[in-house]
């Protein structure tokens, strides 16, 4: 059986499973559509949360970014994992106890203000749309390779699949679909990693293989990798980046994680407050299975690619383009791997042509510029092909990559649609809307969100994980501060919370637009071309904590100058933090 047919069979079987689950668990009420009727077991919710969390950025792009940069990009791992600790300790149980359907609903009720709720809806939509672009981009990458079509065609196929099960099932269908998707993606991620770790180090555990001896050279794997990348003019793989930017970026991802609406609403689906904490704990366990493996996958992918191009070592001649391996031929079809013969020697020169220190050596070897462009998002998906693993493993990782992208996309789209139907339409535009019509509005809103996400995904502003990082910065600057102040400060009033959110959103968006906005207009990849003269050297992806600090400061300043919240609101805040029962989940 050829690889294309095998891919179709494996991917098709998983899609049939997802859509079958959605039909079986079709939402028949708003409670089922928004919160799965609050009946999800903590272990299943932890698994669904892990799938919701481990998006295309985690599965497809994170290891690719680590492969491309090395240790400095371990900030993705540290920030995302640390954020779940914050979420479990500081937000999830209290928000569940409040007993609402959406994040803007909590903000509107806690701050006794329709204006605060509407500002929260705007923030949520901006964050979720930015985030979902990365997921649709990742899904398009996976579809384009394994169905051998253009990336844009793959993106439209991904949209159709999400539409089929997300619009139908709502949170109830998405939850049980995500449980299945977690099983698919974790198997798909770890099996190729085990094979590749065995090939390179003889150790079947990738996270231990990363620190084991490279079988062929006899050197520690990371030392061997440092050697080959520096021989090509790149920075050492284990080199440390700017401590300020690494700290800010890690913090941005941490507090951004704790403020992501599509993650928070997962904790509204469990029966009790204690279950919200247990869900977060189980989610960390399930996430760790992939996150411990990702650094090894990134390092081994980088080494395998260089060995593919320079089989006799980086200081020897590169492979002739006409003799390139099959995996390169198949990925060239997608447009995500490109070769340009700049010096006309017919060989694939791959090196850091921006390294001033390496320029003399490159000139001596007759190199006139890097000739091979490899999109970071393809590394995880291409890794089994590079390592020449069996065809079923390649098909499996295709299914896993798609499961990761589609599970998170569905969660984000649900967050968008529920805010539009529940917070905008029911609360503001049509207060007397029936439950049946509200459910219809939610489904139409989700269909519209899918279309918008697809159109934006056709021209993404960066790699999947980089685009997602911008969404984290926005969540850190807007949602996280107002939730923290809403739970832990009785003095915080509606005016302070509203102004704080606006300041955090506007300042962060202005910073992003200042450095990235014109690249959107030009239609180019913003994160490959941005100028380096950032304010205080802070890149846009690490600006979230600054926006959060301004949000906190503004909110406290405005609240101290305006009237304190009513007594019943202060009592409500106190009751949220007192561990008595699960609260009444009315959904109103």
Automatic annotation (TrEMBL):
Asked if the Swiss-Prot or TrEMBL record annotates the protein with the keyword Transmembrane helix, the reply is yes
Instruction: Provide the Gene Ontology terms for cellular component.
Output: plasma membrane
Q: Where is it localised? A: Membrane
> Where do transmembrane segments lie in this chain?
6-25, 46-71, 77-95, 116-133, 153-170, 182-200, 248-268, 280-301, 392-416, 437-457, 463-487, 499-522, 534-558
- Keyword Transmembrane listed: yes
> What Gene3D superfamilies has UniProt attached to this entry?
Sodium/glucose cotransporter
Recorded GO MF terms: symporter activity
Instruction: Report any Pfam family annotated for this entry.
Output: SSF
Instruction: Note the superkingdom of the native organism.
Output: Bacteria
Topology in the lipid bilayer: Multi-pass membrane protein
User: Known CDD domains for this protein?
Assistant: SLC5sbd_u4
Q: PROSITE patterns, from UniProt? A: NA_SOLUT_SYMP_2 (PS00457), NA_SOLUT_SYMP_3 (PS50283)
**GO BP field:** carboxylic acid transport; sodium ion transport
Q: Identify its protein family.
A: Belongs to the sodium:solute symporter (SSF) (TC 2.A.21) family.
NCBIfam families found in the cross-reference section: Na_symport_lg (TIGR03648)
Q: Which PANTHER family match?
A: NA(+):SOLUTE SYMPORTER (SSF FAMILY), SODIUM/PROLINE SYMPORTER-RELATED
Tell me what this protein is called: Cation acetate symporter
